[in-house]
Amino acid sequence: MRRTAALIVGGGPAGAAAAIRLARGGVRPLLVERSAGPRDMVCGGFLGWDALANLRKLDIDPGALGARPIDRVRFVSPEGSVETALPHPAAGLSRRTLDEALLDRARAAGAEILRGRAVRAASSRRVRLDDDEEIEAEALLLATGKHELRGHERDASIAGAAIGLRCAIGLSDAAARAIDGTIELHLFDGGYAGLLIQDDGRCNFCLSASRARLKAAGGPQALLERLTGESSVLAERLAGGDAGDWSAVAGVPYGWRARRTVPGVYRIGDQAAVIASLAGDGIAVALASGLGGAEALLEETAAADWQRSFHRRSRRPIMVAEMLRRAAEAPRRRAPLMQLLSQFPSLARIGARLTRIGS
Q: Domain spanning 2-41+94-155+254-321 has what CATH number?
């Protein structure tokens, strides 16, 4: 059996940030990532100002990676549209580019990266890989994103959880100009969609929908056709677009936060808190929790104590994001919300501030 001081399961932003901080702090972590090479993910793409601040701490320059500046947000719904400036500059960057840059930084800092291997199950701080190799760690940092790891499942039901969908779309020149510098959020009954231009010039199109809405439509492409039929703005954006393949993740438990853990196991990223991407910034939560969990380990803070601390820290942004998500998806709540935003656009900036995890 292999043994290590710190084992990180998952090489997304949370796991890579933790690996960088641990390596810089003198603990050489072992990070296991199931993808063998670069890939796009369902979630991510938008980098808020708190995410950008934490990336600077990790010596990552999104601008040098080709990130596209974003300084405005636009809400589009059946009730109309509202546009306003963001409180601070943000950016659009694909997960493919961001994740690889973070893993490269972790490797350069001294972390050991094991790619193309999947962790199948865990028992406390001992994990079993897909070839039945076992690794035991003094500390385990769980960074598997929205996916569950057998042996360390969330203490939450996913019966009413949403389904996340994503594809990259090559927009027409006119549509690309219309959303350049903007994150555009389309609100509909039972979900929402977000559009932004990422580093490769394509549109990152993310869709969150209830199981009922997706099932009624008959699949992602059929749902998209229904949505473009309901929204002339969305239809205009996607007209003539060159859409790639859909990727999906089921059972997204928006609003969930880890209140407790077991000794030596630090839950980070979406294993610590799941924020609605409509109003929140999942990458910012991932980076903050990855850095925080690693810092706690270096300071020999018990995992249970740190988990409770992050549970408190993430309370306000998660709760506010949930309130906004629920209002946006229900017609009787969305109509007064859009009316209020149209009269007082600055309320959107206040909401954006309240959903930040901080750096």
A: 3.50.50.60
